[in-house]
Specification:
Blueprint (H helix, E strand, L loop, with lengths): L1 H18 L6 H12 L7 H25 L11 H6 L3 H10 L12 H21 L2 H18 L25 H18 L1
Length: about 200
Amino acid sequence: NNLIFLILNFIFFVLSLLSKETALLFPLIYFTYYLINYKNTNIKKYQIFFYFLIMIVVDIFYFYIRSTIIDSSQNEEVFGILPFFSNLPFYTEIIFKFILPMKLSVMPFYTFYMYFVGLFFFIFIFIWVIRYTNKQKMFFLLFLLFTFLVLCTPGMFWKRSSEYFYNYLEHRAYLPLINFYFIFIIMANQYKSKIL
């Protein structure tokens, strides 16, 4: 059963890579989850090493295949570290749009207001997690925040060259935003138990 599960896991991992390059970061997410929960698992360290080694090999193979098919010779102002830094406000802007759905658009504006209000929400949630949750919940909630940041990151290395296109493909952040549903549910349940 474990072998079948392992084979299916890698099949779907490869399929996810063919869908979105965000899946390249799944090994990092899995490894982080394992570090948090390794005491609660019966998995041996060599099994984890073998598992992640295969995933990294798949990632490298994906990069090789992609480089042979797609022309990756992009200007550093279009693809690279410069677009990533220019897209940094996206993290907080998407949080702002999620919590306060006002003046919504499919394009990020990167406004001063959205950036700082979104940053305030993120810092507030982070402090609440550290201060008002037990150790088990804290690690889980921090893992959700970490996963949100990681899954939003890949598309931020790309910037459209035309002024008629938006800087960040915002739809890539919709799946990671699901993490905030879990965070708010846990927050609500904690205060509900205190009230009742």
